[in-house]
Amino acid sequence: MRADVHRLVQEAQALLSPDGETDPATLERTFTLRFHDAVTAAIGPGLLAAVRAQAPGVRLRFLAEAGAETSDLRHGRVDAEIGAAEPALPEIRGEVLGHDALAVAVPPGWRGRSLPARRYAAAEHVIVSRRGRLRDPVDDALEAAGLRRRTVAAAPATDAALALAAATGAVVTLPARIAAPAVARHGMRLLPLPVAAPPVPVILCWHQRFDTDRAHAWLRGLLRERVAAALALPEG
To answer: Is residue 207 part of a domain?
Structure first.
């Protein structure tokens, strides 16, 4: 009920506010954002810095990506999400902000600047899966090339997967630019994925009730800017 009341208050404010641009400096609001942990690490610092500079009365609440589909956007418990999935509900807006290529994070001491497909398949793998899956589309790409890999673990977050891999000599396949800050923190480096795989979309989602909410539109603009900056970085 509290979330519904909050949503109705926001809708009323959007309808009653005068036309014109919102001045971020006057905003007093908390935005709840749900991102994959790699997205939070990649764009969160720049996003928070921009918010602090432009709108000191705005607070950000970062939530971890859910383990299953939720109705939080629909019921106003989350203001915006960034992930790789298109929205399933018609009232949820989905905007593709760009795409990221998959790459392979290799542990410290890994020799070579390239990674043949057979060596990649023979390595031990840690998969990032919030549901604990031990298989993902990379396995299909390998099997199409007549190869199979050995997955030794699944971790729910990028940082956890990289920590496991760095400690054990395993490799992790993940989006190159979005995951680059986390890869660097763990002293690992990225090599090109040696099999063909589709790029990973980066999709911003929000409820249609926020279409005319100028404060929310300002936040979406910042999110677009930060994602574009992250995707413009060189791989690795």
So the answer is: yes
